[in-house]
Design brief:
Elements lengths: L15 H8 L7 H14 L2 H10 L1 H9 L8 H10 L1
Helix pairs in contact: 2-3, 4-5
């Protein structure tokens, strides 16, 4: 199973609250930690480091996506798009 398959994703079956709970388990990183993980990814293509970088930013992506409430778009879809990039 690839690292990408293990990333949580919001879904109607799962419920938004469950997804938000799930992403809270990933710790926020200090700037030095982010730098070291990014360096490991660039220098050694360490997928574990990349996974840690991505998962640590899921809460930020969800928070930004929540700012688009009221635009008529499904919240789960907006969060999914925020997670992609």
């Amino acid at each position: 199973m690839s690292d990408y398959a293990r990333l949580p994703a919001p879904s109607p079956e799962q419920g938004m609250n469950r997804y938000l709970q799930e992403i809270r388990r990933f710790p926020m990183l200090e700037p030095e930690q982010e730098y070291m993980l990014a360096k490991r990814w660039v220098d050694h293509q360490d997928t574990g480091a990349a996974h840690q970088l991505v998962t640590s930013h899921l809460r930020l992506a969800a928070k930004i996506a929540m700012g688009y409430r009221g635009y008529g778009l499904p919240q789960a879809e907006v969060i999914s798009e925020a997670n992609v990039g």
